[in-house]
């Protein structure tokens, strides 16, 4: 039985219950592992061991900010910090997150790190956005979005499960497209492709090498002119055989 063309689109949507239950279970201050087996996010390759990956970047609130995941850094009076807010006008530094006081979670699309200052007075939230193509991190510093609460966004391949070698953590639809083409369609495609190649090659040969013009550009023009008559003769011959009148007449 000839197959018909079938296009099946299978959509897998994560249920609300599953989306809420999926977590990135914290291993240490640098990593967490998804409890559904989809992989581990390890930020140790993202953080700097000597400085901060975000350094003195101004936010809309007119304060400068520095931030570094995993490894503590010091700047001004910010000692062993994950995040630091700088009042450049008065040279005052505020610790806005301790690298040892971090809790990782999963918001349904990205891993989120919540950092608390050593005195508990300030907190920073960093959204780690999975971007498999981002070998070098890109970031957005939003600054103090509400009192004593600071936000950052960092895009990196190291925010992806297994450093970008695994699938992204987002729960979006998985779309699988399966196409099955019938034998008839395959033959039609081959015929059209062969005809196109024949015409193009013939036109080029007649134009470039034979210097033909007009309808003589068409390959084997004499054959194609007589082709309808040949088809007619063939049909009459077959009809004659069916009706018992024999084949072609004797000369």
Automatic annotation (TrEMBL):
Signal sequence extent: 1-21
Domain MRH, first and last residues per copy: 28-162
GO biological process, one term: autophagy
A GO cellular-component term linked to this record: mitochondrial membrane
Membrane topology: Single-pass type I membrane protein; Single-pass membrane protein
Superkingdom to which the source organism belongs: Eukaryota
PROSITE patterns (alphabetical): MRH
Major localization listed first in the record, in broad terms: membrane
Protein name per Swiss-Prot or TrEMBL: Autophagy-related protein 27
Lineage: Eukaryota, Metazoa, Spiralia, Lophotrochozoa, Mollusca
């Amino acid at each position: 039985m000839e197959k018909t063309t079938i296009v099946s689109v299978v959509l897998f949507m994560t249920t609300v219950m599953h989306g809420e239950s999926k977590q990135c279970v914290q291993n240490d201050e640098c990593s967490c592992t998804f409890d559904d087996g989809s992989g581990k996010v390890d930020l140790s390759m993202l953080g700097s061991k000597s400085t901060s990956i975000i350094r003195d970047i101004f936010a809309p609130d007119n304060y400068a900010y520095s931030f570094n995941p995993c490894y503590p850094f010091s700047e001004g009076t910010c000692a062993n910090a994950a995040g630091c807010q700088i009042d450049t006008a008065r040279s005052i530094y505020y610790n806005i997150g301790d690298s040892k006081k971090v809790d990782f979670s999963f918001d349904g699309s990205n891993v989120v790190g919540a950092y608390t200052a050593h005195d508990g007075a300030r907190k920073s939230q960093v959204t780690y956005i999975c971007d498999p193509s981002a070998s070098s991190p890109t970031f957005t510093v939003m600054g103090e979005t509400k009192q004593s609460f600071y936000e950052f966004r960092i895009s990196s391949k190291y925010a992806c499960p297994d450093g970008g070698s695994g699938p992204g953590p987002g729960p979006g639809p998985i779309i699988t497209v399966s196409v099955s083409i019938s034998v008839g369609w395959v033959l039609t495609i081959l015929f059209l492709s062969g005809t196109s190649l024949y015409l193009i090659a013939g036109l080029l040969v007649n134009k470039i090498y034979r210097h033909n013009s007009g309808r003589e550009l068409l390959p084997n023009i004499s054959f194609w002119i007589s082709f309808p008559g040949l088809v007619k003769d063939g049909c009459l011959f077959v009809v004659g055989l069916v009706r018992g009148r024999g084949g072609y007449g004797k000369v």
